[in-house]
Specification:
Layout lengths: L3 H19 L6 E5 L5 E6 L2 H4 L6 H12 L2 H5 L2 E6 L3 H10 L3 E6 L1 H7 L17 H13 L1
Parallel strand pairs: 3-4
Antiparallel strand pairs: 1-2, 1-3
């Protein structure tokens, strides 16, 4: 359930997205807030500026949280973001330990506004293969 406090923090994420546009970056902004609602980190999309396809604000903040927050603090932290995280960012969020994500625009709404947002091709994947060879380093690592 999205609260009035959540809406205020979402507005700040949207303002970060608007600021990104002013700076010449793509229109996406995110922030992390602790359980008391205090903002602890902010980011906006810098894909073009950094020439880095992973420079989405959600992924940058997920990486920051995984590096800087202990697991208990991460679990009590909420990400507020201007758009629903993409698949890349969702994977990073799952591994970050963050407890909650609140977003303004859904992926479907974003695609309605900008159809190219949903035009990413899915690469063909083949596998599994070479199980015995591939499992050796994995097994060695997890036996330690």
């Amino acid at each position: 359930m999205i609260t009035t406090a959540d809406e205020a923090l979402l507005r700040r994420a949207v303002a970060l997205a608007a600021r990104a546009v002013e700076l010449g970056d793509a229109p996406y902004g995110s922030l992390l807030a602790g359980p008391d609602g205090a903002v602890i980190a902010e980011a906006h999309n810098t894909v073009r500026r950094d020439n880095d396809i992973s420079a989405h604000p959600e992924l940058k903040l997920a990486r920051w949280a995984a590096r800087e927050l202990d697991p208990d603090a991460a679990a009590r932290t909420t990400m507020y973001t201007s758009c629903q995280p993409c698949g890349m960012c969702a994977g990073g969020l799952a591994r970050s330990g963050l407890g909650r994500v609140v977003y303004a625009l859904s992926t479907e709404q974003l695609i309605e506004l900008n159809p190219e947002s949903g035009a990413w091709p899915v690469p063909e994947q083949d596998g599994p293969a070479l199980f015995d060879e591939a499992r050796a380093p994995i097994a060695d690592y997890y036996r330690r």
